[in-house]
Amino acid sequence: MTTTWLDEVFIVRKPVIAMLHLAALPGDPGYDSAAGIAAVVARAREELDALQSGGVDGVMISNEFSLPYLTKTEPITAITMARIIGELLPEIAVPFGVNVLWDGRASIDLAVATGASFVREIFTGVYASDFGLWNTNVGETARHRARVGGSHVKLFFNIVPESATYLAARDLASITRTTVFATLPDAICVSGATAGAPTDSQAVRVVKEAAGSVPVFVNTGVRAENVATQLDLADGAIVGTYFKEDGVFENRAKRSRVEELMTQAREFRKQLA
């Protein structure tokens, strides 16, 4: 069996990456300035423990509660995330990535600064979105990664972005093929409409067939009852909402829910040759 970068980073086949959603940060409308950054760190530490003790294969740290999102973030966001991750680093025991929503360049900067192995972002395309007209510049972003010494940072391209529609009239297979050929993603993510929303299985099949050797991840809507089905289609999964108490986006990660899904994932992986 050919070894891929996924095998080298995660050890296991078909890894499940857990989202570690940071509470609102300074500059965000929802930031609790009275409780301060210490409260954000405390919550992140609690959830990191629940995710790791529950058995996830990796974590991705994001500013998920920086609603409404910016497509070019203010410096305070990545700076604060770097401070928080720095405090958590001694306790991070699994491969980790970062995601500064929705800013690919800031995500790469944060990964280089903290030693993260991967980032996930919208690196390609032009979209009509809930955040306005959303444009990207993957060539500039790729060159920026090289300039800041981030060539080792793997890039997860989300080609079905949440809360947005691709402006060009192109089918998903064509988008996948040209993304792979022209923009050199390390992995491709396929999403539903929002965080926690189901990812269409047929969309995963289409992307997987068109992506060639590039790994494909299910990015939203993975649950204990469907994780085996989704991992059968894809090369891995990214899970956020399901791991939270009662499966509610705003709640904190709960160890028992993590264990429930990861048990099903491990049972599925036993069947792999």
UniProtKB/TrEMBL annotation:
Provide an example Pfam family for this protein.
Answer: BtpA
What is the annotated signal peptide range for this record?
none
Q: Which InterPro entries match?
A: BtpA, RibuloseP-bd_barrel
The protein's matches in NCBIfam families, at most eight in alphabetical order, are given as:
thylakoid_BtpA (TIGR00259)
Q: What family does the entry list? A: Belongs to the BtpA family.
Q: What is this protein called?
A: Sgc region protein SgcQ
Q: Which organism is it from?
A: Mycolicibacterium arabiense
